[in-house]
Amino acid sequence: MNPLRMEEFVREVLNEDVGYGDWTTEALVSESHRSQANLIAKRKGVVAGLPVAEAVFRKLDPKVEWVPAVEEGTPVKTGTVLARLRGKTRALLTGERVALNLLQRLSGIATATREVVDQVNGLNCHVLDTRKTTPGLRFLEKYAVKVGRGTNHRFGLSHGIMIKDNHVALAGGLTEAVHRVRKEMGHMVQVEVEADTLDQVREALSLDVDAILLDNMDVDTLRRAVEMIGGRVWTEASGGVTPDTVRAVAETGVNGVSLGWLTHSTPALDISMELEMEEEL
């Protein structure tokens, strides 16, 4: 992760939550008070976001002692201590909610991603994310997919051409759409096109494209499409894929399966912060 981007992000999210100050903590805890705390997983999952949580606490107390108890990307059991920290009590309590929100969100994404990756174990098929991310959190949510051993799809609209049904309709057809983007962008930019039918797959294969997204096809149609393509371009299956169906989809021979719900619908991993020891300087 870009450290400059991270610093800017942490400042923004803390400003959103803290505002004019943590009135409750400031009223009850002296500035010199120090505490030790543990971050604890309340259910099993894959940990992602420890560096982000650390950055939150360090922004509030640059001298905070942060000791990770597990490595990023580690599968953990319920009750596992993820990190131990010690510093100003005000900083620990003020940063608690923001740090936990991010750690829980990213760990939930990493957990779901790892579960899907395990489902396609042994197959030459990538588990891909999409642009269906929380505005402002994309760089972290895609990071969590990587921690879960998934593969990032394009990060944004300027990271590759993807011609979808609305683009085809506006251009007057798939062939015209491909010709126009190639003329505009040149040969150095990869072009992926969406195909809903085998006829569209056949048309796409006659054009200068690098990848075909096979959208909302059943398993039998997917298998026929992959056979038709014969490895000439990269193939991606998308639309309605679930943990229960991803194995069958991957077995059709597609190179990748994209799942938007990895970043827009996965539940957060329950994680808590517990103060263990307090002392006054």
From TrEMBL:
<dbReference type="GO" id="GO:0005737">
    <property type="term" value="C:cytoplasm"/>
</dbReference>
<keyword id="KW-0662">Pyridine nucleotide biosynthesis</keyword>
<comment type="similarity">
    <text>Belongs to the NadC/ModD family.</text>
</comment>
<dbReference type="InterPro" id="IPR013785">
    <property type="entry name" value="Aldolase_TIM"/>
</dbReference>
<dbReference type="GO" id="GO:0009435">
    <property type="term" value="P:NAD+ biosynthetic process"/>
</dbReference>
<keyword id="KW-0808">Transferase</keyword>
<dbReference type="InterPro" id="IPR004393">
    <property type="entry name" value="NadC"/>
</dbReference>
<feature type="domain" description="Quinolinate phosphoribosyl transferase N-terminal">
    <location>
        <begin position="22"/>
        <end position="107"/>
    </location>
</feature>
<keyword id="KW-0328">Glycosyltransferase</keyword>
<feature type="domain" description="Quinolinate phosphoribosyl transferase C-terminal">
    <location>
        <begin position="109"/>
        <end position="274"/>
    </location>
</feature>
<dbReference type="InterPro" id="IPR027277">
    <property type="entry name" value="NadC/ModD"/>
</dbReference>
<dbReference type="Pfam" id="PF01729">
    <property type="entry name" value="QRPTase_C"/>
</dbReference>
<comment type="pathway">
    <text>Cofactor biosynthesis; NAD(+) biosynthesis; nicotinate D-ribonucleotide from quinolinate: step 1/1.</text>
</comment>
<dbReference type="GO" id="GO:0034213">
    <property type="term" value="P:quinolinate catabolic process"/>
</dbReference>
<dbReference type="InterPro" id="IPR022412">
    <property type="entry name" value="Quinolinate_PRibosylTrfase_N"/>
</dbReference>
<dbReference type="Pfam" id="PF02749">
    <property type="entry name" value="QRPTase_N"/>
</dbReference>
<protein>
    <recommendedName>
        <fullName>Probable nicotinate-nucleotide pyrophosphorylase [carboxylating]</fullName>
        <ecNumber>2.4.2.19</ecNumber>
    </recommendedName>
</protein>
<dbReference type="InterPro" id="IPR036068">
    <property type="entry name" value="Nicotinate_pribotase-like_C"/>
</dbReference>
<dbReference type="InterPro" id="IPR037128">
    <property type="entry name" value="Quinolinate_PRibosylTase_N_sf"/>
</dbReference>
<comment type="subunit">
    <text>Hexamer formed by 3 homodimers.</text>
</comment>
<dbReference type="GO" id="GO:0004514">
    <property type="term" value="F:nicotinate-nucleotide diphosphorylase (carboxylating) activity"/>
</dbReference>
<dbReference type="InterPro" id="IPR002638">
    <property type="entry name" value="Quinolinate_PRibosylTrfase_C"/>
</dbReference>
<comment type="function">
    <text>Involved in the catabolism of quinolinic acid (QA).</text>
</comment>
